Amino acid sequence: MTKGFENVKNQIGFCGIWCGSCLGGNDAILELTRKYEQIIKRSQPAIEKWAPKEFDFNEFVKGLACIQAMPLCPGCKKGGGNPTCEIRSCASKKSITNCSQCDGLTECKNFESLEKGHPKIKEELRKIKNVNEKEAIEKWMSELKKNGLIAYYSVKRLKNNSALVWHISIARTFS
Question: Is the pTM of the predicted complex or chain greater than 0.85?
């Protein structure tokens, strides 16, 4: 498991999103970008030969470096996330652990932007209303582990005759 995942795996945000599943906190984006950059740099001659004329290899690599420079989010309950998050502000004022405990969840307008990417977020929150957070996290981790979808990444170098083939494996289980 990555350091980022270890840091956030035991947190559920005020919004109900398990921080262990969040790409901003679990280190998945940073780890994949590091591995991708290694592959890209090894393939530079081929990429520059076959890429469209508009493609600027150096600018692309700079973009990957920018992603890798992003800090890991420690989770909103530890000061991470969007500093102007209306959900966090509201939940903090109400002294609730997460929004499943709020009677106004159904009509809450603070979820409008989050619902665009997570249309069932309120429905999922209702499922954890009377559930111990630790038990919910253990259940989610168990389901992910069973399905091989834990955010743990590796790059494998395989030999196929004389050619090197690179394979990114993004579905690994705990070791």
Answer: no
